Amino acid sequence: MDLGAKSTTRGDDVILGCGPLNADELAQIIAYWRAANFLTVAQIYLRANPLLTRPLSHNDIKRRLLGHWGTCPGLNLIYAHVNRLIKLHDANVMLVCGPGHGGPAIVANAYMEGTYTERYPSLTCDMAGLELLVKQFSWPRGIPSHVSPDCPGSIHEGGELGYCLLHAYGAALDNKDLIVCCVVGDGEAETGPCAASWHSNKFVNPKRDGCVLPVLHLNGSKIGGASLLSRLPRAELRSLLVGYGHDPLFVHGSTAELVHQQMAAALDFAVARIHAIWREARSGAVAERPRWPMVVLETPKGWTGPAEIDGKLIEGTFRSHQVPASACAHDASHLAALDGWLRSYAPEELFDTQTGALRPRLAALAPTGARRMSANPHANGGELLAPLRLPSPATFAVQLSSPGSVDAECTAVLGQYLRDVFKLNEAAANFRVVCPDEITSNKLAAVFEVTGRIATWDSRPGDEAASADGRVMEVLSEHCCEGWLEGYTLTGRHGLFATYEAFCQTVDSMINQHAKWLKATSEVRWRAPCASLNILLTSHTWRQDHNGYTHQAPGALDNLASKKGSVASIFLPADANCLLLVAHGCLASLHRINAIVAGKHAMPQWLDMPAAQKHCEAGIGEWAWASHAPSGRSGTQPDVVLACAGDVPTLEALAAAAWLRERAPHLALRFVNVVELLCVRTRALHPRGLPPAHFACLFGDDLPVVVAFHGYPQLFASLVHERPHPGRFSVHGYCEEGSTTTPFDMTVVNELSRWHLAIDVLERTSALGGGSHAQLIAELRDKLELHARYIWDHGCDMPEVVDFRWPAGSS
C-alpha cells in the first residue's frame, strides 16, 4: 500500500484522506519530534549550554565528536508515532532499534518519557540534569553511542548489523499481547542474517504469540554510499516484501506534515490489522498463515539537519551519516552552522529555558508507567523471569554396573530429559528449542512426543511432527535460531540452541555481541539477570568421519573461551549422565552463555549418577578407577598425568590407560577428566577456575601431563599458560586433519588416538623404563601401520578398536 498518494483506500477502510491527525494533534506530534531531534543533536555536539541560553561558543563543544546523526530523525519520528499508537490503543509495545548508532535518539526519548531519570536519578528533568544528559553521551566514562545496555527499553545494541528482526521475533514469541516495533535500517537490510530473518513471520502463531511490526527505514544512504533497497523501484521492493509474507505500507512525502499524517495512518491501519489477526486466530476462525503488516518509511538521511556545509550537500546524502559540522569546536563557520541547526528547532518553544524541563503539553504526549517503551518490562526480561521447572536428571540416568559396561547415545538420553522439560513447563509456555533442521538427526526427537515443529504454513502428508502449536523451531539458518533464542531469553524466557558443532561458528559474531551485552548489563544495577543462552554443540568434529573435512571444526570453543569468565562456560561431558547433569545446571543458570559439546553416537558410559554428580559439581577430577599405581607405590606422586576433555578424547585416553596398565605396569599414572573446561584456568580469569593447591593436587607442579582434548590443542595450552611450567602439558587435539574416513582414523590422523597418547606417555617417561619403552613405542607404531592397512582393505575400523571395553575388575 502506497501512502504517498493524497487518498488511498483498501476495501472499505479509508487509509488516508485528509489524514487522521487534526491540526492541533499534528502540530503537537511535530513539536515532540523536534524536541527529540534537538536533544539528539545536543548530545552529539554539546558539553554545556544545552538549551542555548547564551550564545554558542567553541567551549560548549565536545573536543571529540562521536556519534551518528543520519538515522536519528527517522527514529525520532517512529518513536513519536508509536507513542501515539500506544496511548490510542493502550497497546503493549516494545522497541527494537536496528540502527544501533541511533543511540542519542533513543536516549532522548527515554529522557523525555521520564524513564531515564527514574533509572538514573542524577539526570533530573531540569537544567542540571539536561546538561549532564548531553555531556555524558560518547564521553569518557559516560555512555556509548549505541543503543547500549545503559539505555532503558533496549534489548538490542545494534553494534553489528543484521540481527534486529531476530531479536524482535524472539521477544514476540509466547508474549500474547506484545507488539514489537522493529526498526530495520536500510544498511542492515543488506546483510545476510537480515535477509533470512524476514522469514521469521512464518514461525509466529497468532493464537499464542505477539507480533513484530517491522519498520523498514529507507533514508537512501549508508556510511559512504547509496543503500541498495532505497534504490530499488517501488514495485520491485513491494514484490520482495510481499514475497516474504508481509503487507507493506509505504510512507513518504514531500513535507514533514505529509509524512507525519501518513505515518499516523499507516500505524492506525497496522494496529487494526494486527488486532484483527489476533481476534480471528484466537476465535478459531483462521486456518491459514496471516499476512502481517509492515511499514516502509522513506525519509531523507539527516532530515532537518544542515542542507550543506563547506559547499557540500549534507541532508539527504551519506555525509549526514555521522557528524556534520565536524570542525565546530574550532571552526567559526561550522560553529555557526551548528548554532543555526540547533536553533531551527526553536528549543525555547519546546523546553522551559528557566528550568530546563520539557513543556508540559509535550510531556503529556508520552505514555505513562509500563506502557512507555523505555519502561516496558519485557525489555528488562530478568524482572519477568520465572525459573524453569526441571525434572530430576536421576530419572533418566543410564544404569551401569561398572565403567564402560553399557553403551548409550548421549543426546538421545538428553532428548528424554528435554521432553519432560517441555511437559513440566507447558502451562508456563516459557521454553523453546531452536535448531537448524537437526532435532531428529541429533537424536533429540523424544521432544516430539509432547510438542512439534512450529509450522504455520501448509502441512502435507509426510511432514513429521509439524504443528502450528509446536515449540521446536527449525530453520536452516543458524543466525535465525541463535537470534530468536537471544530475543526469547532477554525477555524473560528459557531455551536451548542445538546445532552441528562445525557450523556454530556461523554465529560466532552473534555470540560475541551477546557476551558483551551480558557483561555490560551485569554492570547496570537496574537490569535483572536473564536466563542463560544455552548452546548444544553436537554432531561434533570427531564423529564427522562420514560428512568429511568441511564438517570438522571445533573452533566455536576458541571463540567462547576468549570471553569474560563471568559470562562464558564450556562443558565437555564424557557420557550421558554427565550430560544430563550439565544440561540441568545450564538450564537453571542465569546470565551466561553455556556451550555443551556432546556426541550423538552410541558410546561406552563411564560414571553412574552419584559419581557423575560429584564429578560435575567439581568440574574436574581424578578418576581413581582409571588411574594406576604399581605395587608398592600407592599414595605416591605419579610418574605422569593422563588428562582428557570430551567424549571421544575420554574414550581414547581410557583405552591408552588400559593399554599402559597392561603393557607398562611399572608406570604410575593419574587419570584426570575435565568436564567444565574453563576450570583449568586460574580463579582470576574464571569464577570456576581451580585454586593453585587444587590444580597441583591434580596435575602436580612439574609432572609431565599428556592431554587428550576435544578442540584445537592451542586452546587448551592457552588455558594453562599461567600455571606452573605450562610447557609440561603435551596437548593432543584436532589439528585440521581429516576427510571422509573411519571414526577411529579421525583420531589417528590428528594424533589423538589411544596409541598416539600411549606413545607420548612412554616418551615422556622414557627414563623410567630403560630400553623397554623403545620396544613398546615400536609396538604401538606397528599398530598404527596395521590400522592404516586395515581400513583401506576393509573400509571400517579394526575389531580391536571397535570392541574396546574397560577391563573388567580393574576399576
TrEMBL record:
SUPFAM superfamilies: Thiamin diphosphate-binding fold (THDP-binding). Keywords: Lyase, Thiamine pyrophosphate. Residues 23-383 form the Xylulose 5-phosphate/Fructose 6-phosphate phosphoketolase N-terminal domain. Belongs to the XFP family. Its cofactor is thiamine diphosphate. It holds the Pfam family XFP. Residues 600-806 form the Xylulose 5-phosphate/Fructose 6-phosphate phosphoketolase C-terminal domain. GO terms for molecular function: aldehyde-lyase activity. GO terms for biological process: carbohydrate metabolic process. It comes from the Eukaryota. It comes from Diacronema lutheri (Unicellular marine alga). This is Phosphoketolase.
